[in-house]
Specification:
Elements: E1 19-22, E2 38-45, E3 60-62, H1 65-72, H2 77-86, E4 91-98, E5 107-113, E6 120-126, E7 129-135, H3 141-153, E8 160-165, E9 168-173, E10 184-187, E11 197-201, E12 211-212, H4 223-232, E13 237-242, E14 245-250, E15 264-267
Helix pairs in contact: 1-2
Amino acid sequence: MSVSPVTIVGFSSTDFVPGYVGDTKLSAGRLTGGGLPKRVLVVGNKTAAGSDTADSSPPRRLFNEDDADTYFGIGSEVSRMAYAALLVPGSEVWAIANADPGGTAATLTVTFTGTAGSAGTYSVWICGVECAISITSGDTVTAMATAVTNAINAQLRLPVTAVSAVGVVTITHRNTGVRGNFIYVRQSSATPCTTTTVALAGGTPVTGGVVPMSGGATADVITTVRSILFSTLGKRTSMRSRAPWKDILASSSSDGMVPTRKSHRSQQPP
């Protein structure tokens, strides 16, 4: 997609002076989002399975979800942002990984108590994805917990993995750090069948019995990634950060990376 550079009267593309320059277009008329270029760069943590090197590899263009999985690891933070961005029609998606903070990963437990006294069903929802099991009368807590673990791990692109032991399922975020604490889990019922109860344990429950994961610690930094972006994507760069995700949008008269039609430029020295 060819994109025209942003033009500001009286300001040349060779004026590499640190600062902010902008103008207001009066009577410009209404703009619609459908016709605007959508080039997006997502930044986040990868997993060890991804082939790219965090805080080192340059931005990489992604054409599909498999690309994200290959370079950044299936279900990683940066891959999941890419999955969403790739769904937007007309988007050109780029991604880069910053180093995992190396702290602790957020967790949540699902604890089964009591052998099943009747048949039933049970589900947990993670990031809006249902992980369901069928329960047979006589199932032990170990059998039910194992089934839930298998159902979670079958959803390969979730941002979590699961293990079970003696009726307890432990769900762990794929990346370390505080953003895992923003993953919410809910269950279909605390009593999926007679004589069996199920409890979620993590952070402070919110309305409707939804429970956040907890225990994620250590914030990461994007200093190195920011340096790579400044040297790779041009001198005029617009950045925004949004917890629990971060993305960086860049614009340059040479490569046309302009996410909107706002006439503004934030400059870095050459």
